Amino acid sequence: MTGAAAALARTPGRLRSLRTSDPVLTIAVVILGLLVAASLAGRLIPGLNDGTTTVGGRFEAPSLAHPLGTDSLGRSLVARLLEGIGTTFLLSALAVLCTAVIATALGIVAAYAGGWVRELVMRIGDVLYAFPAILLALLVAAAIGPGSTAALASIVLVTVPLMTRMVCAAATDVARRDFVTSARISGVAAPVIMVRHLLTCVSGTVVVQGTYALSVAILVEGGLSFLGYGVQLPAASLGLLVSEGNVYLLTAPWILIAAGTTMVLAILAVTLVGDALRDRLEPREAVDLT
Amino acid sequence: MQTLRWVGRRLLMGLVTLLGIALLVFFAARLVPGQAASVLLGPLATQEQRDALTAELGLDRDLFTQFGIWIGKVVTGDFGDSIISGQPVLDEIALRLPVTATLALMALGIALLVGVPLGVLQALRARRRGGAVGSRVISGLGISVPEFVLGALVVLLFSTVPLGITIGAFTAISDDLWLGLVSSLLPALVLSVFCAAATARTTRDAVLGVLVEPWIQAAVGRGERPWAIVRHHVLRNASIPILTLAATLLAYLLGGAVIVEGLFNVPGVGSYMLLAMDRRDYAVIQAAVMLAAVVFVVMSVLVELASNLIDPRVSTMGATT
Amino acid sequence: MRTTSKITVAAAAIAALALTACTGGGATPGGSEQPADPNLPAGYASVADESIESAGGPLHVQVDYDTAEAQGLDPAFAEIARSWSIMGLVYESLVTVGPGFEIQPELAASWEQPDDTTYVFDLQPGATFSNGRAVSAADVVGSLNRLRESGSVWSGQLGPIAEIADTSSGDAQQVTITLETPFTPLLAALANTPAAILPMQEIEAGELDPTAEMLGSGAFTVAEHRQDESWSFEANAEWWNAEQLGIDALELTIAADDQTRLAGLRDGSTQLANFSNPDALSLLAGAQGVTAVSQTQSDFFYAMLNSVNPDSPFVDQQLRQTVNAVLDRQGIVDLALAGAAVPTAVTPANLPDACAADSVPSASAEPAADALAGESISLLIYNDDPSLTALAQVVQQQLQGAGAEVTLDSVDYGTYSERVYVAQPGDFQMALGWFAGYGDASMVTNWWNPETAVFNAGFAQPHDDLSAAIAEAQALPAGTERAEALQSVCDLADTHAEMVPLATRPQVVGIRSDQLSASVLSDEGYGDFLRLIAEFKTIEG
Fold first, then answer.
1. Which residues form the signal peptide (chain A) (predicted)?
2. Residue A246 and residue C8: Cβ atoms within 8 Å?
3. Among A116, A150, C12, C208, which residue's Cβ finds the most Cβ atoms within 10 Å?
């Protein structure tokens, strides 16, 4: 989310062209904006954010007092959904930020240094990549205790390998180019080259991959919560709300409808923004066959 | 000869990866608080009982010795016995693997059958104004609907409306081939949605990547018909990323679709691993992870090999990595 | 409440260790709101129609978790409620529990109590192990002595036994148990599966390894077992009551996830399933052909307030008592347990002679509205039991309502077990858990003496007055005098406030009533919802 927003902010011209040419993207951006606003509203407006207090009976259907109904402990679903959106977005964004920092640093260093450093980074990446993701997440969660920290660490571990690989590939291309070689020969310090040349050249890749990582993050948080190892009650997250909604789908469908729709929309919007960013930042001119 | 050397080198790298995974899973599993003996014996056990069981399981030795013993046995193909059942872990996994494999292959089959045509279609219409909106949103939705939402909806639908398939009773194909296939269908369908969408997206990108090549433009210039171009030139060259993705998906599916297996009560590798985690059944956790990793490593070698055969230009055989 | 129970299952199962049995939520002596169906005999939640000619089988049953014991299939060491039910299909005990917790004959056709320390059991004529060998008094003596010497959890429930003797004469097989001092819970202890009668002759000859194989005298024999997946049972033709058995084959599937079991009942592929989620009642309410009944368990949830760990604020008895008084048990029942449970004191609310939940001192204490202001409490639970999670959140709300700052610490069961039972002193401030309530009001009180229940020593201290009161109550015959003695156990436990009882644990049994006519007791102490399986009739069609 932050990644995508930042990229959009830095490319105003493109954003304008996106707006005019692509209604799907516009809708995706609007949805994301609304979700972020909702999560902020949940945190900032007093009275809206109390998702942990019983305010009514169990499983009350949507009404004026509780527009989205109540949950198994009589808590307002509006409040819980707002809190859940906030938790999920904050957690996912934070995790992706960590991933981006780690993966960019590792990828660039590996690409610049080459040789055994590159080999080592790639092999460690392989190890994490070949480890069944959900089990990796569960092991982490069990080791440090289920909760937000565990979810965050799991998301980072699951998303770092792929992003490192992509950044490294992109950076390797750049590192072989003439202007990098000449900078090296003329004695420019390695960190300077890495930051000035490699980092700027891979930033597009980082933004695009970061956007995809964000959708993975929301999914991983959901999966972990579903298995009971993610965010813990009485806190709320989209994954937690969805897993509660699953059980009561027949008697209290409003829980799954509200939480599930929000979650799907969030992932969809992030993915579509990612697609658009990639098409713009890594463009290709394809032949139109039809 | 070069191919053989390359394969040998890749397998060696694979072994290094596996050793890394062995280290990681062994020590990660032991970082989890709650020792096997206390979990198994329960709260009412005395410290003496716990100590005795710990010694019996060989868990009282220092971790590096334990790791050495374990890895030494693994090399000879002995992954140890399950703490719960006392049976060799490999036998236990062999019981559950056919179930998971059926599910994985069905899901992957559906994904490829749906995903590849959808992806080609998207690529061909990519330049059309608004032409790809529908398929973009569909494949976007596919990767956005979590399997625990879709699975719950399917379970509820099929259990409340009589649609010919019952959810409550899973049959393994080893017990009854036909019933086994039927009861694998729904969980496989749920799994295939994400896989199909991912396949469609990768196919679209791959096809678009091929479409920028000059020889495609040449073919267009020669007046070849679009579908002929797709069949003869595009698909073959776009197949490498699709193959890579398929291999990744298969490894992921074989590694245990934990959530879907749970929802449909499928007695596969995934649910087995989950139970093993709860019970601190280290030998099972380790073996299951190692096997998933072996599948992953072998698949990636095969895929690279296949890529080289399909398009010698992308050969990595001479490259340093 | 999450769906998750896959993981849960195992953990819950393990949690269940001895501490556990299963759920409940209905009515009975203690009284709850489930209206008694006038067509049902007292003590039954469902009764099989005897007039039905049973279609035989197979009967498909789904349960939430499998037996998983350190000692395999040996009933003497079985600690999990589900092990008791599953092993109880194959093995028989001398006696069993009937409606209203009445002790009834099983392997013993009858028994006498010539004085208050002597019990004489006459075995069923024709009782036979499934290998065809007749059950002898020697098997009974051997099995019970084996249990006593095993040091297993259940051996501690048998009381002060002086001798178990074979007093047979002629063909009539007879066993006499002599006690050192009177011990009322003996029969209820003999009724549970750990006191099962094993084929001792085969075991002693080394022909049978009871940890790997089950060979009993009960209604069923095992055809196949796949750990954590399924059991296949066949009717035991040698069973002394085989003619009465309506089912010739039983397929038991382990389905950890609530939704799977709900789906199985709804689509008719399963005829019987259990749920610890009380909302299963409403979730099954509209389902075609399904009857869901609530079974009141004597099992109950309780809170542990750590008085041993110096880092715990609950070393202060005053604070423990305040927390105990602040907790609103009826509120917990209504909100966290869907009303399908009852508040309880140390003696499970639905057992005869139990004290009323509102009779203890804390019930009449009136803590100030901000009695816990400034207190900060960490509440430990395990993450795989949705009922426990719901309960913890309500407890958290209630304590916060009195001004405390409460954080929930939710960990997986292995970690929980390590911190609560293994660590010395226990590594927590406040924790929630549950006990099996068993079949006699004085049995579970044993766990309030940490010198007997060593697993509690990490967070509770021994109290001479409480220990003496427990022993005294167990020696008294059922009746008013014992009820008074138990009242003082409840009061003392309430005053010490280290383990604070909250409410009974619900269990819902779903029956596919168009395919199965089933008998289910309205009360249960050992989590065994399959107790009356011999009466079940399957319906053709």
1. none
2. no
3. C12
